[in-house]
Design brief:
This protein is α/β, with parallel strands linked by helices and about 250 residues long. The protein contains 8 helices and 13 strands. Helix content is about 30%, strand content about 25%. The strands form 4 sheets. Strands 8-7-5-6-13 form a 5-stranded mixed beta sheet, covered by helices on one side. The chain has a 4-stranded mixed beta sheet with strand order 10-9-11-12, covered by helices on one side. It has a two-stranded antiparallel sheet with strand order 1-2. The relative contact order is 0.12.
């Protein structure tokens, strides 16, 4: 393979002498080794260890730190509960400003009898990370206060959903597989798929750049992967930016 990925360490090696990597050979043959960080140039003619360590520390990837999972807000509901739908809509609006996961528990389903006995007369009920937060509706003020106290506010204003661009040609079988994988991911994450057929008139620049490394994937205009889809990298980007769709808990068997 032209690209060797070490999943446990996040190290990806690209042999520029291999077929399919001609673009990189032309660009970097006189300045090897060259190092990229998440697809962006970091150093050439060696490793700038200081720059790499600084980037890793800035993003909190030191092994001494423990990455905190985003909070889960659980909504206890039933299909015929109109107020529950209003609460869910309000929570989805809050997700635009704060990082958290919505989990729904249908107390009418088999396996959720305990929750039905406990909450059937006070729905909708809301939990925050497994702890009771409110009943008979959403206490938005309390939820926002918890999210702010723990630093889950999104620093950016409302952003449009990300665009994942697939550079392809009609006869590229692997491109079809990548497109199908991306469509499956759309069931779990909010993003738009954009296809660029490099064989079409007007796309000559992309054809020259990517002809030997299709399919190529961009994330919001930045290179993400070539010769296939790095699904782990795409999912990481989407989750870091909070683009997960609302999760629904399956009833216990």
């Amino acid at each position: 393979k032209a690209v060797v990925s070490t999943q446990s360490t996040g190290i990806e090696k690209v042999d520029v002498s291999m077929k399919g990597n001609k673009m990189w050979k032309r660009k970097y043959q006189y300045s090897l080794p060259v190092v990229h960080y998440n697809g962006e140039w970091l150093s050439m003619n060696g490793l700038s260890e200081e720059k790499l360590v600084r980037r890793l520390r800035e993003e909190g990837w030191g092994k001494t730190a423990t990455l905190k999972p985003r909070p889960t807000v659980t909504l206890f509901t039933t299909p015929l509960c109109g107020l529950c739908l209003e609460v869910e809509a309000a929570m989805e609006l809050l997700q635009r400003k704060y990082h958290f996961t919505i989990e729904k528990v249908d107390v009418s389903m088999k396996g959720n009898k305990m929750w039905k006995r406990k909450y059937q007369y006070s729905l909708p009920v809301v939990h925050y990370n497994g702890e009771w937060l409110s009943m008979n509706g959403l206490s938005e003020e309390k939820l926002v206060r918890r999210l702010r106290e723990e630093g889950w506010g999104k620093t950016a204003t409302l952003k449009p959903r990300p665009t994942v661009t697939l550079f392809t040609t009609p006869l590229c079988g692997l491109c079809l597989e990548v497109e199908a994988a991306m469509e499956l991911l759309q069931k779990k994450y909010h993003f738009t798929i954009e296809k660029v057929d490099v064989s079409m008139k007007g796309n000559k620049m992309w054809k020259r750049q990517y002809h030997y490394s299709l399919p190529v994937v961009h994330y919001n205009g930045e290179w993400l992967s070539r010769n296939g889809l790095k699904e782990e990298k795409l999912v990481r980007k989407l989750e870091e930016e909070g683009w997960e769709k609302t999760a629904t808990r399956r009833p216990d068997l």
